[in-house]
Specification:
- By secondary structure, the protein is an alpha+beta fold.
- It has one domain: 7,8-Dihydro-6-hydroxymethylpterin-pyrophosphokinase HPPK (Alpha-Beta Plaits, 2-Layer Sandwich).
- The chain is built from 4 helices and 10 strands.
- The strands form 3 sheets. Strands 1, 2, 3, 4, 5 and 10 form a 6-stranded antiparallel beta sheet that branches. A two-stranded antiparallel ribbon has the order 6-7.
- Strand 8 and strand 9 form a beta hairpin.
- The chain is globular.
- It binds 7,8-dihydro-7,7-dimethyl-6-hydroxypterin (ROI).
- The site of 7,8-dihydro-7,7-dimethyl-6-hydroxypterin (ROI) has 11 residues, from strand 4.
- 7,8-dihydro-7,7-dimethyl-6-hydroxypterin (ROI) binds next to strand 4.
Length: 167
């Protein structure tokens, strides 16, 4: 018997500004949707965004995925890190350019503060390149645990040159 309670809703932030970012994001989305214990994967529209952090790096492509999973937050994080590594991610300069960044943004209404994982993602509320694509695919009235409603965060966050790509 399948217990629907086993399934959790999670949101993943995707970002890339190196080595054909469009391809990186599309490829990562495909790999994520093919993982075991992940279902109903939905990719937001893609956006171009100016870099947050050092400005001497290319613009980013950003998007968000909404999915259902039976993985725990740490199991999901491990899978995401493996996909980053497959896509040539090298952790070097803090806030520097990267081929692929996959962030676990939200997991049900969980608040988690572990050394290796903070959920909701601590920068989610400040980043237009997360909030706008999130709003494209989130249900009406989504609450960010411990913070506020997505709509109030959006209202306080200027789009900052964020541009939705034509699909
Ligand atoms: N800036 C933008 N616009 N998009 C990102 O995905 C992104 N990711 C990062 C930093 C370096 C903070 N800046 C970013 O990790």
């Amino acid at each position: 018997m399948t217990e629907t309670i086993d399934w959790h809703e999670a949101y993943i932030g995707l970002g890339s500004n190196l080595d054909n970012p469009l391809l990186q994001i599309r490829s990562a989305a495909k790999v994520i949707s093919g993982l075991d214990d992940i279902d109903e994967c939905r990719l937001s529209p893609l956006y171009t965004s100016q870099p947050v952090g050092p400005q001497d790096q290319p613009d980013y492509i950003n998007a968000v995925i909404r999915l259902k999973t039976r993985l725990s937050p740490l199991q999901l994080l491990k899978q995401l890190q493996a996909i980053e590594n497959q896509h040539g991610r090298v952790r070097s300069i803090r806030w520097g350019a990267r081929t692929l960044d996959l962030d676990l943004l939200l997991y049900d209404d969980l608040i988690l503060n572990l050394p290796e994982l903070t959920v909701p993602h601590p920068e989610l509320k400040n980043r237009s390149f997360v909030l706008y694509p999130l709003a494209d695919i989130a249900p009406e009235g989504l609450l960010i645990p411990g913070t506020a409603s997505l709509s109030s965060l959006l209202a306080a966050c200027p789009a900052d040159g964020l541009q939705r790509l034509a699909t």
